[in-house]
Design a protein that fits this description.
239 residues; 2 helices; five-stranded mixed beta sheet; mainly beta; 4% helix; five-stranded antiparallel beta sheet; 18 strands
């Protein structure tokens, strides 16, 4: 049996194999489970709700990457997933209310300037703020297939207003640091991120980059604090 458990805000998410959920009851007192199923003769691949002594109830065909709850977040009655099976022309960041799990929606791909587009990295989990907003990583890229320009940033989507906040190009912050090298051209955001418990800040890594004979390289890295709601507000915490 392979499994990974998350317990938060009264919901127990248990991702495991279909054979197990069709067998003996698990030895837990909690009555509600959200289970990821890899597919079997009896069940299609997707997410199911399960109550002890009952049978699985299909919820949605969308499930987190690798059927792994590390790519999911649950807060304030909202569940968000970076899904494995991304529908065409969507961000791949699915969200739903925990009292209406089958009503799956997708956070938007932000609008980009002419000649550019936003890509949503597949390997980074979204985070849900206390006010229900959803934060996820995005990368601004160019339409020029021969240009490797890419700037990592955060998008913060408000489902109530359908508005998207972009954290902003970190190049200004990076180029103002004393570690700037002679060939440092700009800054970008990379890796994972976390949000503060009060939902006011996001903590992430930004780095300087440059090119040597056309080869992209990273110069130096910083851990920064981004003030949510104030685009471009990066504060250095550590290198």
């Amino acid at each position: 049996m392979k499994n990974l458990i998350i317990l938060s805000f009264g919901f127990l998410f248990f991702f495991t194999s279909c054979d197990w959920i069709l067998g003996d009851d698990p030895k837990f007192e909690s009555t509600t489970f959200l289970i990821g199923c890899d597919g079997s003769d009896e069940l299609q691949k997707g997410l199911y709700t399960y109550s002890l002594g009952g049978t699985p109830t299909f919820v949605t065909e969308y499930y987190p990457r690798h059927m792994n709850s590390l790519y999911a977040d649950n807060n304030n009655g909202v569940l968000a997933l970076n899904v494995e099976n991304v529908p065409e022309n969507t961000s791949g960041i699915a969200y739903m209310n925990t009292d209406d799990l089958s009503n799956v929606k997708f956070a938007p791909i932000p609008s980009a300037p002419e000649g550019y587009y936003y890509n949503v990295p597949r390997a980074i989990a979204p985070r849900i703020l206390n006010d229900g907003k959803i934060a996820y990583r995005v990368t601004l890229e160019t339409d020029n297939e021969f240009d490797d320009y890419h700037i990592g940033m955060l998008a913060i989507f408000d489902p109530k207003s359908d508005e998207v906040e972009i954290s902003g190009d970190p190049s200004g912050f990076v180029l103002s640091q004393p570690e700037q090298g002679s060939d440092t051209e700009g800054g970008s955001m990379g890796g994972l991120f976390v949000v503060s418990l009060d939902g006011k800040y996001a903590y992430c890594k930004v780095y300087g980059y440059g090119t040597d004979f056309g080869i992209y390289h990273e110069d130096y890295n910083f851990i920064v604090k981004y003030s949510i709601g104030t685009s471009g507000s990066y504060e250095r915490l550590a290198q």
